[in-house]
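Reminder: ligand-aware prediction takes two inputs, not one.
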Amino acid sequence: MLGTDPEWEAMEMKMRDRTVERGMSESVRTTMRCDAVFRSIDPRFDQINTLDCRRGNGADKITWAPPAFVSDLSRFHRRYSQAVQTDRPYRVAIVGSGPAGFYAAYRLLAKAENAVVDMYEKLPVPFGLVRYGVAPDHPEVKNCEEKFTEVAASPRFNFIGNVELGDKLPLHTLKPHYDAILFSYGAPKDKELGIPGEKAIRNVYSAREFVGWYNGLPEHRDLAPDLTTGENAVIIGQGNVALDVARILLSDVDALRKTDIADHALEELAKSKIKRVRVVGRRGPMQAAFTIKEIRELLQLPSVSFDPIPRDLLPPDDAMAALPRAQKRLMQLLAKGSTNDPATATKSWSLDFLLSPECLNWSPVHPYRLSHVRFSRNQLDPSDPYLPTAKVTPKYLSSGKPAQVDIPANTFFRSVGYKSLPIPGLEDIGVPFDTGRGVIPNDGFGRVTAPSNTGDNKRLPDGSLISHLPGLYCAGWVKRGPTGVIATTMTDAFTTADAIVSDLAGQQGKGSLLNSPGHSTGLGWEGVRPEAEKLGVHATTWGDWERIDAAEKEVGRQNGKIRSKFGRVEEMLDVLRS
Ligand SMILES: Cc1cc2nc3c(=O)[nH]c(=O)nc-3n(C[C@H](O)[C@H](O)[C@H](O)COP(=O)(O)OP(=O)(O)OC[C@H]3O[C@@H](n4cnc5c(N)ncnc54)[C@H](O)[C@@H]3O)c2cc1C
Ligand SMILES: NC(=O)c1ccc[n+]([C@@H]2O[C@H](COP(=O)([O-])OP(=O)(O)OC[C@H]3O[C@@H](n4cnc5c(N)ncnc54)[C@H](OP(=O)(O)O)[C@@H]3O)[C@@H](O)[C@H]2O)c1
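Here is what comes back for the chain with NAP:
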């Protein structure tokens, strides 16, 4: 519910008030110099300055033409690129247009009035997991797109879509033209289980791919999951993604028809034979990663029953009473279960605990078609089984053999977390990647760090030395790993943006820009574009997205839906050709 998030509103008000109160600080004086440049380029600058645009005061209705503005800016740069740094706008590249990128852009534009942000996105369309991850039956979560659209209305913001940094456009092409690069490209892969059968057997899917498929992500347009081979689905992992997948499988397909779910997914879900979904965790209820709202939604699905959780898995009454409020409410909800009668329900689901998948199996009758999953049973550390961090160990029978159980399954999803990878060429611009943690190493404030023995460095608690890599930053899932909701990502992106603003203002001492003085063209995208076009990379603008958006909504209107997403990049680009 970010669109009406009181924290956001309060923060926004505070920022506006601070801007008014600040008076003629050095940064404002610099801003005024930059504003004078913008004003000389386009007299409408004052009308569409970001701070004025933010609150529907009519300014956002002005038709703005970023390409003309940008190319005028580039003329200015060509004349003045060797000028003292503060005499031209700071150019910041943001890689990725999900919540981390947009919230960082919002904060940067609000706090550094002399910054111009170029946001690169591999798809022609923005918003990352808000568009392609958040479940279609959670439209209120997507309200943050309105905030992001307000950010994009700033004349100091450029959206550069359809440009994949790495393989398609080498990262080093950005470097000479920017003062800072912020990586917020999320976690585009997922973790595997590494068990026999995971790759070889049919009807085994990654939840990430399935989510992308039902949300219309072009990469997974052709996943074509077969939901017709039997009644039993098993999902491994007990996070909110697992619950999203379970809910989509269990929902009445008619309830999804009006959402923005992909049309191809609706077709397949309408044919689905799945009637029973098991969401399986390796630890206990107190250690599960899901949250109460998502559990409640599943428990309230019409005509879907829930298998009661064995009482001995939940904390006893006295331990339950002593739990912090949020955990207590979740445990009470799990203990209460669903009121839907299994006798009349058409589908059912369960949460199964203390089971680790060992291997996937097929029956001799249908080679390579999944028939059951073998699990080994676990036990929680008996010293404190209700601790959220409690670990498990394998359970053994009195014979000394491992305790195992087979669970029938026709369709299988692994939902054990997303994973970030290094963009190809990160190392060319000196950015390390921690493959173990799946993050870009950083100082917690989003400044990219590298091990160091010399220079201006800091000592970590383990005694090792790190140094900041000037002008390089990260935010969101690639900064802290693939966990956290949009609000967490917002806070995290604000932290990184504050670090950039502080560094740009020189508060961290010299050498905090990507290039040494006089070695940056300051041209941003205008400097990068010729090289991109030579490589056959053709960018889309925010205006292009607005056309795609309008076309999707129009097709959706004809189908009685919020929107019908184009499932292929070519279909999106066709809209722009028409
Ligand atoms: C299935 C799912 C459902 C979720 N549902 C909710 C929910 O209901 N509520 C909630 O609060 N949170 C939800 N979340 C969490 C939320 O989506 C994340 O906190 C947030 O999206 C992380 O933001 P990000 O910007 O780091 O990454 P992302 O949102 O993944 O954005 C990264 C962007 O970078 C782009 N990109 C990647 N590589 C490149 C490249 N090489 N060049 C250019 N661009 C690139 C991607 O296309 C993408 O647009 C959900 C997450 C998932 C996985
Ligand atoms: N509606 C929403 O608000 C919403 C919706 C979707 C996602 N999100 C957010 O997006 C983030 C990512 O969600 P997620 O579900 O992908 O990740 P997650 O919350 O980290 O959950 C991952 C789950 O996988 C399990 N797991 C990991 N490795 C495993 C293994 N080898 N074998 C068995 N189980 C394993 C974990 O169990 P252990 O704890 O035992 O490791 C955990 O239950 C979360 O912060 C989530 O809240 C929010």
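The CA atoms of residues 54 and 150 lie 6 Å apart. The chain has a mean pLDDT of 86. We will return to this case in the review session.
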